[in-house]
Amino acid sequence: ANGPLTAAVHKHLALQPGGRILEIGFGNGKLVPQLFEIAADLSYAGIDISETMVAAAASFNPGLCEAGRATFVLASVEDIPFPARSFEWAVTTNTIYFWPDPVRGLSEIRRILRPEGILVLAASTPESAAQLPYTRHGFRLYDEGRLRALHEEAGFRRIDLDRFRKAVTMPDGSFVDREHHIVIARA
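-> structure tokens emitted (187 positions)
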């Protein structure tokens, strides 16, 4: 269900060959190879709070890991284990809902981005999320104005927003029209 959204998010990154990208919340890692199809010679690092997802992503991407092109690390967005100014890009899709302190997480992402680095963050619109029963359990939803304010508070300079809409098939076979905010923010 997240494949088309992820592809749209990746386009907003404007990836160039030879750069470094950090992904926050890569899940099972099955969509990571798409990044390497966009730009050659990328260096990828991903963090996730789930040991299960870290193991799954590493096992799904053995060639990238063995070549030193991808690494998957158990870590939280509030404490990213990489030095300041390490990455040209950061990306996260459908994770901000669960961050205990979104400003702290966004500030930490800004810290690891190089000057002019780009963060692309995707989050379901509150209206779209209201259609999904599971969003009633622990999701913090943000409208466009609040997303912009969170990024500004974290120190991002230029913040653009786009929308992505797609009808997706749910696991039960039903169709849901999902809409996401895509935030493009520069460090």
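The radius of gyration is 16 Å.
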